[in-house]
Amino acid sequence: xxxxxxxxxxCTGLCxxxxxxxxxxxxxxxxxxxxPCPNLRDDFRCGIxxxxxxxxxxxxxxxxxxxxxxxxxxxxxxGAMWRSSAxxxxxxxxxxxxxxxxxxxxxHLDAARGIAAAARLRPALDEQAARAERLAGxxxxxxxxxxxxxxxxxxxxxxxxxxxxxxxxxxxxxLRGADLMGRKLRGADLTGADLRGATLDRADVxxxxxxxADVRGADLxxxxxxxxxxxxxxxxxxxxxxxxxxxxxxxxxx
Length: 254
What we know:
Layout: H1 58-62, H2 68-76, H3 86-113, H4 122-136, H5 140-143, H6 148-167, H7 228-233
Helix pairs in contact: 2-3, 3-4, 3-6, 4-6
Pfam families: Pentapeptide
InterPro entries: 5peptide_repeat, Pentapeptide-BTB/POZ_domain
């Protein structure tokens, strides 16, 4: 079974190298894709990790690789360091760009397999997950040929049906993929809504943008497909309830 939680101690800061940064409310600097962030230390740790938000890097606190980082470093490349050469860097970043969305897809498939109302889909979900896991363990050369968009499209048929079965009989609205940036959800009753990324009972939140969504006091424990990055992006507090398997973001208020 693949690890779907980030273990930075077993990675080499790939998320601090691969993505481009644009000076904005999320990042204090511009950085081209493929270049190490100036805050990345020689030991592959962030030099300002405990001060990311006050130093202008809240976007970094939202990010999560779903365990793709350690998979690339420890499995795909057997512990090899990207700093050894320009070609090593390019190869590892290319693998990371495939494995990160692949691991996220596996997270969603695993969540769907845990929906009791969707039990009849379990064989098909298991098959999709096994296929994705085989690809995740493939050599770097094979990863380069993976069509992530096609995999997502195939899996999405099952995920939507699992969501429908979970929400059967509820009056919720379908907000899958909704942009909830800045929306305050405190006290809102959105039970059964399809929110992909939101945090409500039987709310499907795949693809929902929760940046700055106010979920203080909200019950997200029954949300369908909620991920750690989505929780990290929201504004919560000690009374916000999360699904099992997710960590309470350290920047949430007490």
